[in-house]
Structure formats: structure tokens, C-alpha cells
Design goal:
The chain is mostly helical. It folds into 2 domains: 48 residues, Homeodomain-like (Arc Repressor Mutant, subunit A, Orthogonal Bundle), CATH 1.10.10.60; 147 residues, Tetracycline Repressor, domain 2 (Orthogonal Bundle), CATH 1.10.357.10. It is 72% helix and 0% strand. It is built from 9 helices and no strands. The longest helix is centred in the N-terminal third of the chain and has 24 residues. This is Nucleoid occlusion factor SlmA. Pfam families: TetR_C_24, TetR_N. InterPro entries: Homeodomain-like_sf, HTH-type_TetR-like_transc_reg, HTH_TetR, KstR2_TetR_C. It comes from Pseudomonas extremaustralis.
Length: 204
């Protein structure tokens, strides 16, 4: 049984790569079954539709994000320290799960309405925990807080792709992304104008 699960997991990763690289709408159930090492009939037994497999992969993505937050939460520190650890954790996760990030960003809209509701609930749970860890600005309305959590999550999850095509070594890319994310998120979380980092322009 353990060997079977191991094989299924390996094939499942191939199905993930197939969906993420070709696009959800470009992959049929027969091709998915082949990538999973199953017959089409067996695939329908595991997943009644492509959307069910897509939802499973997206849920896996958010569960890993929440687990990542949990590891950071185990050793709470200052907001600045937490932010740096969150940035590093998200950059590392992007390297480990690149196909998940691509799939979630591009194909979540292919799910049914009920499935999209499930994904939205997971995302909102993740965004609320991000804000709790970073310290929620008190002067923002409930709607603005929700928007801030969404914006921070979007930055953390999309930033690694910003410089993917740039001729930078790994250290340079990481440092630049850290600086960009730190500046943007710290400014967003500032509660008063005096709290916000000032931009000093040198005058010749």
C-alpha cells in the first residue's frame, strides 16, 4: 500500500506539471489518466471531474501555505523579523512548488462556483493569519484590512516571478526581491503618516 501511494504521488506530480504547463482547458481526462498511471475509468473513480483534481491541487497549495505560516508562528518575534522570515519562507516555497503557484494564479477560475467558494475561504484564512502575524493597522476599516491582507498575500505569492527573466544570480535576485517586498509591505502596514518610511531624495 505504501508503495502504491508513493507511485500515485509521483504520478500526481506529473499531472500537476501537465496541467500547469499546458493549461487546464488544454488537458483532457484521458491525458490526465495517462500522466497519473491510471485508466480513464480509474481516474473517474478517484476524481469525478478535472475540476475535482484541480481543487485537490489548489487545496494542497493553501494547506502548505498555512503550514508555512504555522512554522513561522512557532517562534513569534517582532513584526520586522516576522516579515523577513515570511518573505524568505515564501521565496523558498515558490522554488519548491512552482507548478502550484502557476496553477492557482491562472486556473482557479476554472473551478465550479462551490469549489471557488472553498478556495476563497482558504485564501481568506491565509490572508487573515498573515495580518495577525504582521500586526494589523488599527486605523484601517474592516474592508481596508481585508484588502491589505489580500494585497500582501498577492505580493508574497507573485513577487518571485517578477525577476524570472532577468540576468541575475540567485543572491542578487533574492536580495532585490527582499528589498522590494519589505519596502512595499512595511509602508502598507504603517498606521500613521509618521510611521511610514520616508523617501529621501538627494539634491545635487
Amino acid at each position: 500500500m505504501a508503495e502504491y501511494r508513493s507511485r500515485l504521488c509521483e504520478h500526481r506530480n506529473k499531472a500537476l506539471e501537465l496541467l500547469a504547463s499546458k493549461g487546464f482547458g488544454q488537458v483532457g481526462m484521458r491525458e490526465l489518466a495517462s500522466s497519473l498511471g491510471l485508466t480513464p475509468g480509474s481516474l473517474y473513480h478517484h476524481y469525478p471531474s478535472k475540476q475535482h483534481l484541480l481543487l485537490d491541487l489548489i487545496e494542497e497549495f493553501y494547506e502548505e501555505l498555512l503550514t508555512t505560516l504555522g512554522r513561522v508562528e512557532q517562534r513569534p518575534r517582532s513584526r520586522q523579523d516576522n516579515l523577513q522570515r515570511l518573505i524568505h519562507a515564501h521565496l523558498r516555497l515558490h522554488e519548491e512548488m512552482p507548478w502550484h503557484f502557476r496553477l492557482v494564479e491562472r486556473d482557479s477560475g476554472c473551478l465550479t462556483q462551490d469549489q471557488q467558494l472553498r478556495v476563497r475561504q482558504l485564501r481568506e484564512q491565509y490572508e487573515r493569519r498573515l495580518l495577525q502575524m504582521l500586526g494589523r493597522p488599527r486605523r484601517l476599516s474592516a474592508q481596508a484590512l481585508q484588502a491589505a491582507g489580500h494585497a500582501i498575500a498577492t505580493l508574497l505569492n507573485n513577487a518571485p516571478s517578477w525577476l524570472a527573466d532577468q540576468a541575475l544570480d540567485e543572491a542578487e535576485r533574492t536580495e532585490l526581491l527582499e528589498n522590494l517586498l519589505t519596502g512595499a509591505i512595511e509602508r502598507m502596514l504603517a498606521t500613521r503618516p509618521s510611521d511610514r518610511p520616508s523617501l529621501q531624495v538627494a539634491v545635487a
